[in-house]
Structure formats: structure tokens, C-alpha cells
Write a structure and sequence with these properties.
Order of helices and strands: HHHH
Helix content: over 70%
Shape: extended
Largest sheet: none
Number of domains: 2
Number of helices: 4
Oligomer: single chain
Radius of gyration: 22 Å
Distance between the termini: 51 Å
Structural class: mainly alpha
Number of strands: 0
Length: about 150
């Protein structure tokens, strides 16, 4: 009974979010004519959806881990703390320097520049880690296949 309720609730939430997304997109495309305010609304909605997705992943992961194997809850908390530390490191490394060559009328705020640099630093760190893990993984696989 409980699974059917959650499945139905999940499906209803998905439909509500889909309808709201399509309505906002139609507003921006046809009524707002891609003005600055309508594009800001669309970007705000995208950020909200991203935040909702991340929160859902964390909350569902916590719930499933807590109900199926409570011992793994410590591992999940360690991963979340590591992710938070990585974001904090990217923030500390961000300079927030003014954009060079920017010709717009309104200059971005210091907070916007700092956030942009944080996201770029996080992208560089994660991209470098991904490339490094691919290289190390291939070397480890090659060494294991030679031993066998």
C-alpha cells in the first residue's frame, strides 16, 4: 500500500513539474520574447530544478541507505562531507576577479564573479580528477592483466 502511494505521489509531482516547465518555456518563448526578465526567470527555474534534483538525490539516498543498510549511512555522510569540502576548496581558490574584455552595460557583482570562478574551479578539479582516474584505472588494469 505504501509503495503504491509513493509511486503515485512521485508520478503526480513529475507531471506538475513538467507542466510548470512547459508553461514557463512557452511564456519565455512567446510572451516574454526572451527579454532579460524572462530569461532570468527561465534560468532561475533551471537553478531551482537543479537544486531540487540534488536535494532529492541526497534525501532519497539517505532514506534508502538508512532503511536498507544503516551501517552504510556513515559512508554516505563521508561522501557528502567530501563533496562539501571540495566545493569549499573551489570557493576558497576562486579569485572573483573582474571579467576581462567585458563590454556590457552592467558590470557583474563581486558575488557573481566569485560564484562563477568557483564553478569554473570545481569544473577544473572534477575534470582533472576524471582524466587522472581514467589513466590510473587503465594502468591498474594493464598491470593486473600481465600478472594473470
Amino acid at each position: 500500500m505504501e509503495k503504491k502511494f509513493y509511486a503515485k505521489l512521485f508520478k503526480i509531482c513529475l507531471w506538475v513539474l513538467l507542466v510548470a516547465s512547459v508553461a514557463l518555456l512557452c511564456y519565455v518563448a512567446f510572451i516574454g520574447k526572451f527579454s532579460e526578465g524572462s530569461v532570468d526567470a527561465l534560468l532561475g527555474w533551471a537553478y531551482g530544478m537543479l537544486g531540487l534534483a540534488i536535494a532529492a538525490i541526497v534525501c532519497v539516498g539517505l532514506y534508502i541507505t538508512a532503511t536498507t543498510n544503516p551501517k552504510n549511512l556513515i559512508k554516505l555522510v563521508i561522501v557528502l562531507a567530501g563533496a562539501a569540502a571540495l566545493c569549499g576548496l573551489a570557493f576558497l581558490l576562486a579569485k572573483g576577479a573582474p571579467a576581462q574584455g567585458y563590454t556590457g552595460e552592467v558590470l557583474p557583482s563581486q558575488g557573481t564573479l566569485k560564484l562563477t570562478d568557483t564553478v569554473l574551479n570545481l569544473t577544473y578539479i572534477l575534470g582533472g580528477t576524471a582524466i587522472l582516474s581514467i589513466i590510473v584505472g587503465e594502468i591498474v588494469m594493464a598491470l593486473r592483466s600481465k600478472k594473470a
